[in-house]
Write a structure and sequence with these properties.
alpha+beta; 9 helices; Heat Shock Protein 90; about 290 residues
Length: about 290
Amino acid sequence: MKYIYLITIFFIFFGCKDAVKNNKGIDKEGSEEVSPIVKEHTKTEDLDIKSIDKSRTIELKQKQLIEKKDEREDLQTLIIDKKYLVDKKDYIINFKYPLLNESFKPTNSNFNGFINDYYVNITKTEEDILESKMLCDSIAAKNFREERFIDYKIYVVSDQLVSVLFYKENFYSGSMHPSYSFDCFNFDLNRGVFMAYEDFFIQGSEDELLTIINQKIDESINKGDLYYECWEISSDDFFNAKNNFVLNDDYVEFYFDDCIICPSYTGTYSIELPLTDVLSVLKKYELNPLVF
């Protein structure tokens, strides 16, 4: 231990001598030019600029979704636009959703029952918010006024099928921007039943359709479209979201929650595929409204 101590003192002594020599070789004017404070300030400014830019792109991305055109105005006689607002001290719940006019067809009640009883579940939403506040240790989080917002887009296919996209905006405590998640439902107006992936696409075709989607993403990245910094969708993510699609007479559009397909600050929430691109995986039977 004695020798180790002496060696340590030796290196400290000569290290200090070198530092003194180096400091003497730098003139006052030069030392003023190289200021670590200025460097640190520049880095902070760069970070602030990047944060501002990301905030703007997040807002633009969300605005494009909200302003996206659907067929709500054309379907005013078929749908009943409903609103539900809960405005309390700790949270806001603002839900907008459609019900179908049962005077057109009694089986429209099947759609309405599901939406009212299961999807737009205000009681469950309130319980989730209060539970999350109880579990959180942060005083700021407990005092934060959380927001839950649901709105929708609606489309019709050949007067036979109603296709609904619900987009959910969740503003959680501690977050700078709301996150978005999606649910899609396709309802057969003639039979009064909901239709799933297997009703439109060949059973077991998920891998092939995922390949088509990822090819579309790669093409868009290479073209420099809105998919900057996005990535291919994993098999697990697609299987979890394979029923999250809306339809019209020309294309099928798959929706993915925030950060599944693109980072929150750029890109898109959805991949739109012309029906001609998915002919190889379309189920060929008369009840499929996409068959042409």
